[in-house]
Write a structure and sequence with these properties.
It is built from one helix and five strands, in the order E-E-E-E-E-H. By secondary structure, it is of the alpha+beta class. A hairpin with a 2-residue loop joins strand 4 and strand 5.
Length: 69
């Protein structure tokens, strides 16, 4: 099973996105996605933003992960 984390894009530079996932900030590749802007939410897996998601999706993901912790 693969696990992706929801994160908010806070910055972009040279194909990389700085994302905030529940307070943890890290740089991930944004090369697979088009039209990503700061403020967007993305699903991150293995250091790569693999999909744009909505803020509702992000809240649902955080809630599900909270049940596991």
């Amino acid at each position: 099973m693969c696990v992706g984390l929801a994160a908010k894009v806070v910055g972009l530079k040279d194909g990389m996105a700085l994302v905030d996932a529940s307070g943890a900030k890290r740089e991930v590749s944004a090369e697979l996605l088009e039209d990503v802007e700061p403020g967007d939410y993305v699903m991150v897996h293995a250091g790569i933003a693999i999909a744009k998601i909505t803020s509702d999706d992000e809240e649902e993901t955080d809630g599900l992960l909270g049940l596991l912790g």
